[in-house]
């Protein structure tokens, strides 16, 4: 079997006396959509920050395609193809949608022509919004733009931190479809509270509880796992 694209081994992070991640082991395969779920306070966002390089780990090791990236900073990991989006929208009110994308493409040393910008926006459903300011976008469109910015560098693995947070009933299916279209193009580690969307999208699911992965595998197997039912999903989810 081919080695995973991303391998995390024994990752730990402590803030004072609080142990937030506690020996996390996680594998993400090339081209798959791998979901990470768990209750509030489980350590999901902290783990994403450790994987992306935003936060250094206190212990453990991280490998990208067999290369040890444990001590690499965030920008160096991004150059190797590991990028992330954020749980809270981080856009600039002074820039148009097209300017955001052009900036992201330039930073990634990609083509920044008008057609390249337009193509990058089309793939996340923002065709025709090039001249709009970000304050003119709906919340769902802002989230879509953030996903598009993360994809601007043609990453090998993108970490999506709750891309459906705050989306309405009309916007969630569109975001679900966009994420699904990434399958095979790049690997996705999806952190998401919308469990229904997770089980529709994911090739594999890992469950984080109290800072540790308690189950990992195909969605149907994870949904039936007694430990997951007891700790997170509840008996009605089986």
From TrEMBL:
GO terms for molecular function: ATP binding; ATP hydrolysis activity. Gene3D superfamilies: P-loop containing nucleotide triphosphate hydrolases. SMART domains: AAA. Residues 6-235 form the ABC transporter domain. Keywords: ATP-binding, Cell membrane, Membrane, Nucleotide-binding, Transport. GO terms for cellular component: plasma membrane. This is ABC transporter ATP-binding protein. The lineage of its organism: Bacteria, Pseudomonadati, Pseudomonadota, Betaproteobacteria, Burkholderiales.
């Amino acid at each position: 079997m081919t080695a995973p694209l991303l391998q995390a081994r024994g990752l730990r992070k402590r803030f004072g006396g609080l142990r937030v991640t506690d020996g996390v082991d996680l594998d993400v395969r090339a081209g798959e959509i791998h979901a990470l779920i768990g209750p509030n306070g489980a350590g999901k966002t902290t783990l994403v920050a450790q994987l992306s390089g935003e936060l250094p780990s206190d212990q453990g090791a991280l490998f990208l395609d067999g290369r040890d990236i444990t001590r690499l900073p965030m920008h160096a990991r991004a150059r190797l193809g590991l990028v992330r989006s954020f749980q809270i929208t981080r856009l600039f009110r002074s820039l148009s949608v097209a300017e955001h994308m052009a900036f992201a493409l330039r930073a990634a040393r990609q083509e920044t022509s008008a057609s390249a910008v337009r193509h990058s926006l089309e793939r996340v459903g923002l065709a025709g919004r090039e001249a709009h300011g970000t304050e003119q976008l709906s919340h769902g469109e802002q989230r879509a733009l953030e996903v598009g910015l993360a994809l601007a560098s043609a990453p090998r693995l993108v970490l999506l931190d709750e891309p459906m947070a705050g989306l309405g009933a009309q916007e969630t299916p569109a975001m679900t479809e966009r994420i699904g279209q990434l399958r095979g193009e790049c690997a996705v580690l999806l952190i998401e509270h919308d469990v229904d969307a997770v089980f529709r999208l994911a090739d594999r699911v890992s469950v984080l509880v109290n800072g540790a992965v308690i189950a990992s595998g195909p969605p149907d197997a994870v949904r039936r796992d007694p430990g997951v039912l007891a700790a997170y999903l509840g008996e009605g989810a089986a």
